Amino acid sequence: KEKHEKGIQGLKGMLQRYFQGNISALKVGQNIQQNKKPYFLTDDDISQITSETIEEFTRSLHRPYSPYLLSSISELIQNIGISYSKLNHTGVLDRLGQKIMYGYLVDYFAANVSMNQVNKNVSALTNIIPLSTKQKNEIYQSVLNKSALVFMKNGILTDTEEQQIVSYLQTVGLSINDV
Q: Which end of the chain is more exposed for a tag (fewer CB within 10 A), N or C?
C-alpha cells in the first residue's frame, strides 16, 4: 500500500512537471510503463491522476496561449498509455478543449486575431480534442454574448463592432435569429 501511494504521488508530480514544461511526454510515457508494476499502478490510477492533473492545468490556463499548447496536449494523450475515452471519462478533456476554444474565439474580439486564424486554431484543437456540435455552438454563443455585453457597455454599438459581430456570426454559422 505504501509503495502504491508513493507511485501515485510520483505520477502526480511527474505530470505536474510535464505541464510546467520540465519533462517530455515521451519521458512521462516511459516512466509510467517502467513504474506500473513496481508501484502497482493500474490504468484506473493513471487515468484518475492524469485527469486530476489536467483539471488543475485547465484551471490555471489563461490567454494568450503558448504556440506549443496543442502539441503538448496531443503528445501527452499519445504517450500516456490510456485510451482517449478512458482519460476523458469525467469530461476533463472536453472541459480543457472548451476553455481553449473559448479563448481562441475571444481573441477575435479582444486581440484582433483574424477569423481565418481563429478557425485554424479551433480546427487544430478539435483534431486533438473532438468537441460535439452542441459543445461548439454553446461556446460560439457564449463568446458572442460576452462580446455583445462588452460592446454595449457604453450603450452604443459602433459600425465597426457591428461588422465584427456580423463577420463572427457568418464565420461560425450562427444567424441573427440565433442571437
A: N
Instruction: Assess whether the previous peptide bond of 38 is cis (omega < 30° from 0).
Output: no
| pLDDT surpasses 70 at 178 | no
Give per-residue pLDDT as tens, 102-142.
999 999 999 999 999 999 999 999 999 999 999 999 999 99
C-alpha–C-alpha distance, residues 173 and 65, integer Å: 25
Instruction: Output the CA angle 96-177-150, nearest 5 degrees.
Output: 55
Q: Phi and psi dihedrals of 87, rounded to 5?
A: -65, -35
